[in-house]
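Response to reviewer comment R2.3. The reviewers asked that we include at least one raw input/output pair. We reproduce the pair for Glucosamine--fructose-6-phosphate aminotransferase (Isomerizing) here without editing.
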Amino acid sequence: MTDETPGRHMSAEIAQQPEVFAAVTGSRPLIASVGGAIAERRPRFALLAARGSSDHAALYAKYLIEVLLELPAGLVSASTTTLYNAKPDLHDVLYISVSQSGGSPDLIEATAAARDRGALTVAVTNNPDSELARAAELSVDVNAGVEKAVAATKTYTATLLALYLLIDSVQGGQGEKAAALPELAAQALSTIDSSVEEAVARYRFVERMVTTGRGYSSATAAEGALKLAETSYLAARAYSGADLLHGPVAAIDSDTGVVAVTSTGKGGEAMRDVVDTVRQRGADVLAVGSAAADVPASSRIVLPETAEEVAPILEVLPLQRLALGLSLARGGDPDSPRGLSKVTKTR
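Raw output as returned:
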């Protein structure tokens, strides 16, 4: 690819992810030292602050904390601090701020305020020298390297992996379930081209898409919808499979493309009825994940099987490729999405 080739950065950074995963797993001892400090403080519950793709990583971490650590966890609204000046008592609370750049003013301000109010603050960022990392008591380096594409790919998955290793270490784990991810990611990226190309052809002219998943995979659905919206300008919405059946399914018809994330595990099992229902509505369903071959979909992208709690780190890879392919097929350049920049500053 030349320097002017549309999507060159996004394509290259998708391909770099096996190497990035190896770097993140190699830094597990440093991440585990932060996990050990969290365990010593014995937090009562956890709060997570993030924006954009990092918000989906925080949603993934919420499931990890609630399932693996059995602690209540919630996603915070930074604006309650930055706009409304709320001052909750956060003593004995774990407050994790997730930001690829570490430069969003609202997250920096909210993290500093949480620390002042007694929280144990941890910044998870791809910029260890950022203001966010300095604002927090502890920090975890995502270790993804410089990302040039506007649409986050390798920084998103590296953040997921870093969060898994962090939370696993809090419970005394050694990261065993993530050890094979570099190899599995390379395997996945080398085998999904034809399935992704088929999906691009199917959805090239669609204007409305829904992404859906259950459990850990809810984060994948959310990130997939964001990638489709920001690179291909599709009207893409993400729903938990459960929430989809509680109303939005009424809007699904034969003009709707549905991406169902279905990996081996309890979340994937719960998606069977969801996929069957949307198929009955006439939707064209693309199943993505290690259990994709076992659901009644129109087309499938099957991925290697992993433990359910690390499946989202692989699940999003074909959705990144799908977003890239659709953007190019529709005449766009995913490296230069209109109205977006690499660092978005909000308050």
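The beta strands are 45-50, 73-75, 93-99, 120-125, 138-141, 208-213, 235-240, 256-261, 284-289, 299-302. The chain has 14 helices and ten strands. Further pairs are available on request from the corresponding author.
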